[in-house]
Design brief:
Blueprint: H1 2-26, H2 33-41, H3 45-151, H4 155-173, H5 177-229, H6 236-253, H7 265-271, H8 295-306, H9 310-328, H10 339-362, H11 369-391, H12 397-416, H13 422-453, E1 459-461, H14 464-473, H15 479-483, E2 488-490, H16 495-514, H17 521-549, H18 555-570, H19 572-583, H20 597-624, H21 645-660, H22 666-689, H23 698-716, H24 733-743, H25 747-753, H26 766-783, H27 791-814
Antiparallel strand pairs: 1-2
Helix pairs in contact: 1-3, 3-4, 4-5, 4-8, 5-6, 5-8, 5-10, 5-12, 6-10, 6-12, 8-9, 10-11, 10-12, 11-13, 12-13, 13-16, 13-17, 16-17, 16-19, 17-20, 18-20, 20-22, 21-23, 23-24, 26-27
Keywords: Exocytosis, Transport
Family: Belongs to the SEC15 family.
Function: Component of the exocyst complex involved in the docking of exocytic vesicles with fusion sites on the plasma membrane.
């Protein structure tokens, strides 16, 4: 069994060795190592070596057989090879020579090729350099231009250059250190440009704040000039103000660099929005173009737009302008003192809104119409409030009139720029009432001065020139007076022509205020008439009342006041015509206000008449105070009684006074005379009935009767013409009947006929008669204390008592 195993192992080993030998024969020598390793790893490498030797010997025998088979051919080949050797030597020599010659000849070519190679390398390098420079030079040129623009402060082009540099040139140039430095500087340059633009904007805002006054003054002058060029056309001037005024201020405020690139393409284009015309306008107000340079606004706007910060810029600009608007709209505390204060206030406001209007029309959305209108609404409310407050302090009509003209010019200027100004004109209509009140105060002083300085005497004229002078001031129409030779006297005093002229001056003053308020002729006419009516019914009426009622006004002065007011009353229709002529409104127009001058002068005349009556009565009272009746005087037995001295003086005064009344209307003189007589009669009756006079004698009644007869004689003589019959005597009828009743002691007739229309003593009041009888009874009682035994006196006392008793019964019967 063991031997069988060995036999099988030997077979397997022999087969393995056979396989290895075939592998060695067929495998590349480079890969034979693993095969040999497997032999040495086994235990039969000696056996393998033996087989290998056997295989080698087999191959040697095969090679030897093959060599023997091919040896003759080999010999032949060697012979042929030896023959070729000589030829090969010759060929070698020739090839060597040829190679030498070729080498010699190729050296120049190699040198040329080297040179060509170097040239090609240089050419490639140059091309590469050119290509790189082509991309780098624009960067450098652009950066150089950027630096130049920054130095020249042309920030908007610089920003555009910066944008082109960053987005186009630097990416093309490649990664170079200088490009990296430039790229790092770009944000810094943007920040620098933004900050510089904002600084310039702040400077601009400060500049326009300072120059608003000048800008507004220029715009207002332009509006004033335009209005004066064609005042007859109402709408065209305003349209031209809007066109030319905006153009003028646009020229004043548009800022451009000298090379035409200082602003921006947008700003240059927007400047064309203005109504600039190719016409010769050298006659316009110069100097506005030197006031404000708007290029900082355009530049900053475009810069912030490019930076994507337009909203930030717009909000900042509007916020700052709102602050400036509040400052501009805040008036100075003493603005109302001078017109210059108002003018400066208006100039600043106009300048502010002219700037905003210019910005509105020359930028694309920096400010919009809604924003400007909002600012204007705010401004309008503050302007109206400020003007109402400050104008209320003014008491000079000339200043108010100048202020009104300034407000009209202010409103027309801003209306030319498209701002609504109706509230300003409404406020001017409110100020018209204030102006009227100031005028009334002024004319009140004027009228009082005229009345105080008047001598209340007819005006003497000695020449035709003097006469024409006065008739030119006052419309006197008296043909009879014109026929009289010189020297002669005008019926009125100096205050008539002066008052009439002042009335016309007042009308002119009212007319001046109504100019340029865009009112119709009817409205102007109505305004003037209403103001004139206030002057007549309030101011002039009060002044006349003051002149009439002031102390120390004599009857002659009052008479002259009546004559003067009569002539002024007659001149009222001339004032009507005067107003109609200056307003071109016929006086008979429907709803036209009528002047109240006639009633004013009538009232003044009636007041003067009443004052004459009052003054005359006061003068009569002064004389009556001199009356010194002896109420206990005895009856004189013989001779005639004479009138009291005071009464004689009173009658003389009345005669002298009534002689002055010849120039008065007849009715006035008659009323004054009747009033004086009634007052004398009433005063004498009051003397009789005075409670302090407790006793009256018959002698006193006889003296009073004598005085009454003197008065009746004065009345019968007709001191004033125009009384019919004995009308003036009726003033003394009450006193006459009473005195006749007592002096004639006709009590039986009185008591019998009392209450009948035909009664002789119809005007005697029983109460009055009773009071007088009581005083007479007291006198009789005292006189009879020591004479009670005289029968006549006792009978008289009984008679008085009886009459008193009967009177009391009569009173009781008629009053129960």
């Amino acid at each position: 069994k063991h031997r069988g195993k060995l036999r099988s192992l030997g077979i397997e080993t022999a087969a393995e060795h056979e396989r290895i030998l075939r592998e060695i024969e067929s495998t590349d020598t480079n890969c034979i190592g693993p095969t040999l390793r497997s032999v040495y790893d086994g235990q039969e490498h000696g056996l393998f070596m033996e087989k290998l030797d056997v295989r080698i010997r087999n191959h040697d025998r095969e090679i030897e057989k093959m060599c023997n088979h091919h040896f003759q051919g080999f010999v032949d080949s060697i012979t042929e090879l030896l023959k070729v050797r000589g030829e090969a030597q010759k060929l070698k020599s020739q090839v060597t020579e040829t190679n030498r010659r070729l080498q010699d000849d190729g050296k120049e070519l190699i040198n040329s090729m080297e040179e060509l190679k170097q040239c090609r390398v240089q050419q490639r390098n140059i091309a590469t350099t050119i290509d790189k420079l082509t991309h780098c030079l624009p960067v450098l040129e652009m950066y150089s231009r950027l630096q130049e623009q920054m130095r020249a402060k042309r920030y908007y082009p610089a920003l555009r250059t910066l944008e082109q540099l960053e987005q186009t040139c630097l990416p093309r140039a490649g990664q170079y250190r200088f490009c990296s430095i430039m790229a790092e500087n770009i944000p810094k340059l943007r920040t620098q440009i933004r900050d510089t633009a904002m600084t310039q904007l702040r400077d601009f805002l400060e500049s326009i704040r300072k120059h608003s006054d000048k800008i507004g003054e220029t715009a207002i002058k332009q509006a004033q000039l335009q209005r004066s060029l064609d005042s007859s056309i109402s709408m065209q001037p305003r349209a031209l103000i809007g066109r030319r005024g905006r153009k003028l201020v646009a020229a004043a405020m548009t800022g451009m660099d000298s090379d035409g690139q200082g602003g921006s393409p947008v700003s240059e284009q927007d400047s064309g929005i203005l109504d600039v015309e190719d016409e010769d306008e050298d006659d316009e107000v110069p100097g506005a173009q030197d006031l404000v340079d708007f290029s900082p606004v355009y530049r900053c706007l475009h810069i912030y737009t490019v930076l994507g910060l337009r909203d930030v810029f717009e909000n900042y600009y509007r916020k700052q302008r709102r602050k400036q608007a509040r400052l501009v709209l805040q008036p100075h505390s003493n603005m109302h003192e001078t017109l210059e204060g108002y003018r400066r206030y208006f100039n600043q406001i106009v300048g502010f809104f002219v700037v905003e209007d210019h910005v509105l029309h020359t930028t694309q959305g920096l400010v919009n119409r809604a924003y400007v209108e909002e600012l204007w609404e705010l401004a309008l409310s503050k302007i109206v409030a400020a003007l109402r407050t400050h104008s209320s302090y003014c008491d000079d009509p000339n200043l108010v009139l100048d202020l009104k003209n300034l407000i009209v010019l202010f409103a027309d200027t801003l209306q030319g720029y498209g701002f609504p100004v109706s509230q300003l004109f409404d406020m001017l209509l409110e100020m018209r009432d204030q102006y009227g009140e100031i005028l009334l105060k002024k004319w009140n002083i004027t009228f009082r001065q005229v009345l105080d300085q008047d001598n209340y005497s007819p005006i003497p004229v000695s020449t035709e020139q003097e006469y024409r002078h006065y008739t030119s001031q006052f419309p006197l129409q008296d043909p009879e007076l014109e026929k009289l030779p010189f020297p002669k006297k005008l019926p009125f005093s100096e205050f008539v022509p002066k008052v009439y002229c002042q009335l016309k001056e007042f009308i002119y003053a009212c007319l001046k205020y109504s100019e340029d308020l865009h009112l119709s002729s009817t409205e102007v006419d109505d305004m003037i008439r209403k103001s004139t009516n206030l002057l007549l019914t309030r101011t002039l009426s009060h002044c006349l009342q003051y002149a009439i009622k002031k102390k120390n006004v004599g009857l002659a002065e009052l008479v002259q006041v009546i004559i003067n007011t009569t002539h002024l009353e007659q001149s009222c229709h001339f004032l009507e015509e005067f107003i109609s002529n200056i307003t071109n409104v016929p006086p008979d127009t429907v709803n036209a206000t009528k002047l109240y001058g006639t009633s004013t002068f009538k009232d003044a005349r009636h007041a003067a008449e009443a004052e004459i009556y009052t003054s005359l009565n006061a003068k009569i009272d002064q004389f009556l105070q001199l009356a010194d009746y002896d109420w206990l005087a005895a009856v004189q037995g013989g001779g005639t009684l004479t009138a009291s001295d005071y009464l004689i003086d009173l009658i003389a005064f009345l005669k002298s006074t009534f002689s002055v009344f010849t120039n008065l209307p007849g009715k006035v003189a008659q009323t004054a005379c009747m009033s004086a007589c009634k007052h004398i009669s009433t005063s004498l009756m009051q003397l009789l009935l005075d409670p302090e006079v407790r006793q009256i004698s018959m002698g006193a009644l006889h003296q009073l009767n004598t005085d009454v007869k003197e008065c009746e004689s004065f009345a019968r003589a007709g001191p004033v013409a125009g009384f019919q019959g004995d009308t003036l005597l009726l003033a003394f009828s009450d006193l006459r009947q009473l005195l006749e009743l007592f002096t004639q002691w006709d009590w039986s007739t009185y008591l019998a006929d009392y209450g009948k229309p035909t009664c002789k003593y119809l005007r005697v009041n029983p109460h009055t008669a009773l009071a007088l009888l009581e005083k007479m009874r007291e006198t009789s009682r005292k006189n009879n204390v020591f004479a009670q035994f005289r029968k006549m006196d006792r009978d008289r006392q009984k008679l008085i008592d009886t009459v008193i008793k009967q009177l009391r019964n009569l009173i009781a019967q008629h009053h129960t």
